[in-house]
Amino acid sequence: MTTTQLISEIKKKRSFLCIGLDVDLNKIPQHLLKEEDPIFAFNKAIIDATHHLCVAYKPNTAFYEAYGLKGWKSLEKTIKYLNEKHPEIFTIADAKRGDIGNTSSMYAKAFFEDLGFDSVTVAPYMGKDSIEPFLAFENKHTIMLALTSNEGAFDFQTKLVEGKELYKQVLETSKTWKNSKNLMYVVGATKAEYFAAIRSIVPDSFLLVPGVGAQGGNLQDVCKYGMNKDVGLLINSSRGIIYASNQEDFAEAAAEKAKELQMQMEIILSLQSQ
Ligand SMILES: O=C(O)c1cc(=O)[nH]c(=O)n1[C@@H]1O[C@H](COP(=O)(O)O)[C@@H](O)[C@H]1O
């Protein structure tokens, strides 16, 4: 999917919500465990109930890898279902990969070609040659960690390197890489006070913003400093939406939570256009 298509979908749906499909068999309604593929059954019900409210889904691969081959098959079925039924929805493989060049090329093939995701998350620690193999894919997007939502973000990302915070160095350097137009960045919703500084370095890039909901990030604060002329934000919530109920009504409960966020986004978008 191109960035232009993503922007037009945001405008159409009046939403920049991304729903995280982080499926934990201990948290899903127990009646689903009777299904042949409980993870896919859960995802399908969530997607069917929420697809009109969001513009992206983000399965975090850890939640599938943890169940071995079965889990990977559930991930495959989920992305296939999304691509066939909702090709207008942006898909993110949250895998946080990145390795020496030839290995990164294989990761990129796995997520972009074999599975058919629109994007994949990567970690920048190994530098340029670990990220450029992902960027080489046309109309695919590489979402690089910039300033993460967790407490450990302060261990390295905000430390001064040659007089400048490391996350700023990462953002600036990444702009010099080949095909950097295919980059998006992860910035945690819990770090709202950093958005203005981040936008001054990457004014036009999309930011994937996790940390709203279960981690306590605030949507209004993020939008105030993080939005650009194209919106430029994908706000992710995983547990806050998909585990709204663990009973038979789980999909409707998830849709209600998604609707709450979408309505707040609609208000923010209408204020922005005034
Ligand atoms: O790359 C991510 O998506 C990510 C980066 C980050 O800084 N913080 C963060 O929480 N995430 C992911 O975003 C999701 C957040 O889930 P909830 O806290 O349940 O909404 C998880 O899949 C995390 O792995």
Radius of gyration: 18 Å
Give the CATH architecture.
Alpha-Beta Barrel
CATH topology: TIM Barrel
For the sheet with most strands, the description reads:
8 strands, parallel, barrel
Approximately how much helix is present in the residues? Answer: 40-55%
Question: Which strand-content bin applies to the residues?
Answer: 15-25%
Give the averaged pLDDT, no decimals: 97
Taken from the alpha-carbon principal axes, the silhouette is globular
Distance between the termini: 29 Å
Number of domains: 1
Count of strand segments: 10
Instruction: List the ligand species.
Output: orotidine-5'-monophosphate
Please identify the oligomeric state. single chain
Write out the CATH superfamily name: Aldolase class I
Determine and state the CATH class.
Alpha Beta
Q: Overview of this structure, please?
A:
The chain is of the alpha/beta class and 274 residues long. The protein has a single domain, classed as Aldolase class I (TIM Barrel), CATH 3.20.20.70. 45% of the residues lie in helices and 16% in strands. The chain has helices at 3-13, 38-50, 62-65, 68-85, 101-114, 128-135, 153-156, 166-174, 195-201, 219-226, 239-242, 250-272; strands at 17-20, 56-58, 90-97, 119-122, 141-147, 160-161, 164-165, 183-187, 207-210, 233-237. Helix 2 runs parallel beside helix 4. The model has no long low-confidence stretch (mean pLDDT 97). The structure holds orotidine-5'-monophosphate (OMP). Its EC number is 4.1.1.23. Belongs to the OMP decarboxylase family. Type 2 subfamily.
